[in-house]
Amino acid sequence: RMAQNGTAQNGPVEGTASVPQPLKVQDIRHTKIFINNEWHTSSTGRTFPTFNPATGVKLCDVEEGDKSFYVDLDGSIKTLRYYAGWSDKVHGKSLPIDESFMCLTKHEPVGVCGAIIPWNFPLLMFSWKIGPALSCGNTVVVKPAEETPLTALHMGSLIAEAGFPPGVVNIIPGFGPTAGAAIANHMDIDKVTFTGSTQVGQLIKEAAAKSNLKRVTLELGGKNPCIVFSDCDLQLAVEETHKGAFYNQGQCCTAASRVFVEESIYEEFVLRSVERAKKVVIGDPLDPLTSHGPQISRRQFLKIMDLIDSGKEEGARLEYGGVAVGGAESLFIQPTIFSNLRDHMRIAKEEIFGPVQCIFSFKSQQEVVERANRSPFGLVSAVFTGSVDRALSMSAALDTGTVWVNCYNALHAQTPFGGFKMSGHGRELGEYALAEYSEVKAVTIKLRETL
Prior knowledge:
Structural class: alpha/beta
Low-confidence stretches: 1-13
Number of helices: 11
Oligomer: single chain
CATH superfamily of the largest domain: Aldehyde Dehydrogenase, Chain A, domain 1
Strand order of the largest sheet: 14-17-18-13-12-20-21
GO molecular function: oxidoreductase activity, acting on the aldehyde or oxo group of donors, NAD or NADP as acceptor
Distance between the termini: 80 Å
Number of strands: 24
Organism: Sphaeramia orbicularis
Mean pLDDT: 90
Domain Aldehyde dehydrogenase: 71-443
Family: Belongs to the aldehyde dehydrogenase family.
Number of domains: 2
Keywords: NAD, Oxidoreductase
Radius of gyration: 24 Å
Shape: globular
């Protein structure tokens, strides 16, 4: 599909954005609030616009909820099927106790669960939240991100079509300070689960504590270390860290933000990483030839460009990229690679949430563990090595909720996911997530002394 000169045949060229055909307003069917399997207009009469980030064109206006009641697809299907299988397997235990007593435990639903989800994976995050919540017998109120409400609202139409009882899943599009805050503060919501920034997670936890002490699950930010040892499969490490850094334009909490490479292979790793980044095709996300789309919004775009500029100013070496692509209103940023970094630099410490790969060098295993753990975040990490012993020792030493060995972004419905430190608490996915959506009740019975 690629011509000899490196340009895509009948598609976008490297480093340039094609102009996608705008989605027609009549193609969008669901823009209202979804409650009790019915579509409602906002009680305030307010709406808010939704835009296509690739073109800046307004798609439609969505009803705004307030203080009232694509790779994603495969993962979402697997998640829902996995938790559907758990629905009749959530049970307690029979416990042996002293004297003539018998104790049974029951796992009961928490109740009404509020789910506040982000814009970067709107379908997948929707599924991650409702899957375990529903399998444990709860009802759910979902607030999608204001940038991406249409995916959740379309899911609402499928939920009604599938025959869910009214009120089991409700969808309230709106803004964080209003609709999101209402969920966190509401006295009749028993649990809130949030995926997003650490700063907003702190606000949600505070609101939950000040209201009814509702249970909270938080999946927050990350500044994730990838450690590449000289005995690894070098090209595999280059490929996996490239995907980790630039997947979804770097708009991932799991982004491979800090790549530490052993000194003896550092220059070769940087060279190969740059060559790999040059093969990225920037353009319309709906074009199958495209591998790199726009950032989500102007605000996010400006934040990323500010951090890129700070890297240049603080003395990091810009190996590739570092510029916007397209016109003045474009939201496309060329994949960017920095080398020669120091740990005190902003791009070495702050979560960028954009297509920026930072490559550091290290000399010893002890040194790199200390540097990798020197972060308030602890979401994921990765180790690339040919040594099983080193893989095991490193996985024990790294302060992260997930450690990937010779792979990256290997997420599965069966595997728990969540962070240490300021990356949050609680777990998504797997059997572990069920504990976040159920209450354990102990029933102790006094038996008769004689039969």
